[in-house]
Amino acid sequence: MSSKTPPTPTTPSTNFSGETLVNHPPTSGAAAAAASRLTDHSLQYRRKLAHLTTALAPLLSITSGTAHPAFPSTILHYHLLTEDQLNELAHHYHQRTPSRFSLCYPLPVVGRWHQGTTTTTTTGQGGEAAKLEDKRRRFGRFVGLRGCESPVDGEGDEADRERREQRAMELYVEGEMKRREERAWAEMTGRGKGCW
Questions:
Q1: Is 74 in contact with 53 (CB distance < 8 Å)?
Q2: Between residues 194 and 51, which one has the greater pLDDT?
Q3: Helix H or strand E segment including 159
Q4: Is the CB of residue 130 less than 8 Å from the CB of residue 117?
Q5: Closest CA to 93 of 56, 112, 66, 124
Q6: How many Å apart are CA 107 and CA 95, to the nearest integer?
Q7: Disulfide engineering: 186 pairs with which of 78, 112, 147, 191, CB 3.0-4.6 Å?
Q8: CA distances from 44 to 3, 37, 38, 41, 47 (A)
Q9: Do 192 and 183 touch, CB atoms closer than 8 A?
Q10: Which residues sit opposite 21 in a β-bridge?
Q11: Rg, Å, the chain Cα set
């Protein structure tokens, strides 16, 4: 009787051009480790690809009932938004300029849209990129994407900070609305034009 183990059967597969390939089992420990790394990378790639192709449900505007044409359809499209597109989206959803509709959305960011970035960079190019990433993160939080929360600044816990930010945003919108109402009243009564 021979103590040899029977050879491992090979399974044929095809490549992208349709050619039949034969998968040979690795013969050494180094080859097995390399094959394992390739499988791990392939699995990570498939997971990342599945994540990036996840569809996003469009958010509808409270006033028009329509989604903005530039609203990202997938997470990949979200990561490819430009600063101009982000500003247009924020304006469409009443987050760039305070209005009576600004706080009607589940996670408004109106008070923080124009705030400076939380990261400091030494070059102008990096500052622009940080500004874009900050707006992208704020928009992601606005539409409910996970992982887009504000960076922790070290004071208090996350819930307290969120409550302070929410209250500050409410006060900001209330103050802006009060100023607009006063301006409209002054124009309506003629006081805005300089005649008493």
A1: yes
A2: 51
A3: helix 158-189
A4: yes
A5: 66
A6: 10
A7: 191
A8: 39, 10, 10, 5, 5
A9: yes
A10: 13
A11: 27
Q: 189: which 2 tokens?
A: 């009564």
Q: Which of 177, 64, 180 is nearest to 111 (CA)?
A: 177
* CA atoms of 178 and 185, how far apart (whole Å): 10
Residue 108 in contact with residue 102, Cβ under 8 Å? yes
Residue carrying structure tokens 């029977």? 6
Q: How far apart are CA 80 and CA 88, in angstroms?
A: 14
Residues comprising the chain, all counted? 196
pTM of the full predicted structure?
0.53
Question: Which of 53-62, 77-86, 114-123, 171-180 is least confident?
Answer: 114-123
Q: Is the pLDDT of residue 23 over 90?
A: no
pLDDT in tens, 82-139: 999 999 998 888 888 778 888 888 877 766 666 654 444 444 445 566 688 888 988 8
- Residue 51: how many CA atoms within 13 Å on its side-chain side? 9
C-alpha torsion angle, residues 176, 178, 180, 183 (rounded to 10): -140
